[in-house]
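Q: Could you predict the 3D structure of EamA domain-containing protein?
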Amino acid sequence: MTNPQKGAAAAFLAYLWWGSMPFYWKALQSISSSEILGHRVVWSAAFTLVLTLLGGRLGSAVSYISRNKKNSRLLFIGGYLITLNWGLYVWAINVGHILETSLGYYINPLVSMLFGTLLFGERLRAAQKAAIATAVAGVCLQIAALGEVPLVSLGIALTFGLYGAMKKAVALESRESLFIETISVAPAALVYLLYLQFAGRADFPYDPATTLLLAGTGVMTSVPLLLFAFAAHRVRLTTIGFIQYVSPTMTFLIGTFVYREGLSIYRLATFCCIWAALAIYSADAVMAGRKEKRAENAQSREGIFIPPHAHAYKDPTLPRGKRLSRFRGR
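A: Sure. Here are the predicted structure tokens for EamA domain-containing protein:
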């Protein structure tokens, strides 16, 4: 199996894992969502600590925190962003809003494009602008028809989109960054769990099966993130972009056909707008990828070296046949 094939398999497994998570959280429905979140953070921190120790990277992670204070602060913020995202997701699953979580993760790629423009100065192509406009129209349709803002969906999309923007701003190996993020939130989560216990508001002691499931939240949270990191280094982002729809599609099907959540005609219309937006986004990504590939092939035939992560641009000061021979980084 080639590296791209291994990467695609890892990405598919990661999104398959995430898509099936409603079953796991439903099994913990007897525990309050906030208590589940506290356990999820603490056990994730413990699991990533073990991984960091086994990989011999604990020293470098601690050194990174002391040497890169600005980036460390961003990772701390990212830890709380992803915790908020986890909390919204678990709460929504256990109170019967699985379809809203699905909508949130469908919207997420479009939110990421918007943040790329606002925070990193990335330029949107016409098709990308059309995709965002179509998604906004779908959300506005739901607001107008049902008189309600899909707060859970928007909250999930915005928190994960901001988390992704933070990850883009901080370049660090996945195990170390995940360790720093979880360890930054773990003290607050542990204090909260102790407060619940001493205040008599905790559901502890748990039965053995529930205890095992709560301890397993660390593995359930961290493993797909590590699979995703493995895939990201081996396949094109366009490929990952297509595979990522496995997760919200599975969640949509689980919410509709397993847990029988109501899907009104207006919510269905909103989903149709989002699906149309994603179709525009995906088609544009494919065409842009093909155009970039043709440009790279043309440069290769001319015997010109193309640096990694660089793209060609026209230089009008050069002769006509050589105008694509200078490069700048992305």
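Q: Anything worth pointing out?
A: The mean pLDDT is 85.
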